[in-house]
Design a protein that fits this description.
By secondary structure, the chain is of the alpha/beta class. The chain is 38% helix and 15% strand. It has ten helices and ten strands. The strands form two sheets. An eight-stranded mixed sheet has the order 3-4-2-1-5-8-7-9. The chain has a two-stranded antiparallel ribbon with strand order 6-10. Helix 1 packs antiparallel against helix 6, helix 4 runs antiparallel to helix 5 and helix 6 crosses helix 7.
Length: 266
């Protein structure tokens, strides 16, 4: 049985973390566009690979790799996605994962620590201005049209164990990517829908919501920076963006540019 642990770093969003506990029965692969990391075939325990997909924003490029494990790892039986800011620090984690594999589970993901509903998650994302509210609203309208039920569960997709080449899982991953590509970059808004649409039951990786964040098995490292394009969250940037556009227009079309700059920009 071939197994791979993998992650993806785009736009220098995260630092490359080293897991403090390694299991030699797994391969470790990191996809990245970091030019320094790409100069070396390996970095610590990671095999470094260039991005397989690089056509959208940094966030969505990373999401593509997260979702489409069947495309990038056709030769592996199981894949374990782990966000780049999470460190495996105990063999107990692998005992847990191997127990799930021995149960012949197709997919296992932790439960969300705070919410149990996609629609509640969407409201929180809009309230915190994490993504464009109009994009989120369109996505939620789509789910309503498809009669997706409220309170139908919510997983936190920072860690995902999958038999990614299973036919039902592959179809679900294609649906999931369609939603992330065309709607919100927040993949948790469409994960549970994609599994529900495919008739797939997700096994909780831990028994209680948020238990993975408190476990000694894992360490969550604070993200260093959010070097993504802030214009993607257009609602929070509308005023300064258009002010800049107006100022540029006025300067270009003012007869006495030097006098204008002295009056308004001194």
């Amino acid at each position: 049985m071939k197994k791979v642990i993998y992650t993806c770093i785009t736009g220098e969003y995260d630092d490359a973390c080293a897991h403090t506990y390694l299991d030699d029965s797994w391969d470790y692969v990191m996809f990245t566009d970091n030019q320094y990391l790409l100069t070396m075939p390996r970095y610590m325990h990671w095999e470094i690979r260039p991005l397989h997909f690089n056509k959208m924003s940094n966030v969505k490029n990373a999401r593509w790799h997260k979702i489409n494990a069947h495309i990038i790892f056709p030769e592996y039986d199981y894949s374990l996605w782990i966000d780049a800011n999470i460190v495996i620090q105990s063999g107990d984690f692998f005992e847990r994962i191997n127990g799930i594999i021995n149960s012949d589970v197709n997919i296992s993901v932790p439960l969300h620590p705070l919410r149990n509903c996609i629609f509640d998650e969407a409201k929180t994302i809009k309230d915190l201005k994490i993504d464009n509210k109009n994009t989120v609203n369109r996505e939620m309208q789509k789910l309503h049209c498809w009669h997706y039920p409220k309170d139908n569960g919510l997983n936190e997709t920072c860690i995902m164990l999958r038999q990614h080449n299973n036919k039902k899982i592959k179809r679900a991953q294609k649906r999931w990517w369609y939603m992330v590509k065309n709607y919100s970059k927040r993949d948790q808004l469409s994960y549970n829908w994609a599994m529900w649409r495919g008739g797939i039951k997700t096994m909780p990786m831990y028994s209680r919501p948020g238990e993975h964040r408190k476990s000694h098995e894992l360490l969550f490292v604070h993200k260093r920076s959010h070097n993504q394009n802030p214009a993607e969250n257009f609602d929070t940037w509308t005023i300064p963006y258009w002010m800049a556009k107006i100022c540029k227009f006025m300067i270009l079309h003012t007869k006495d540019k030097e006098d204008f700059l002295k009056k308004h920009c001194a």
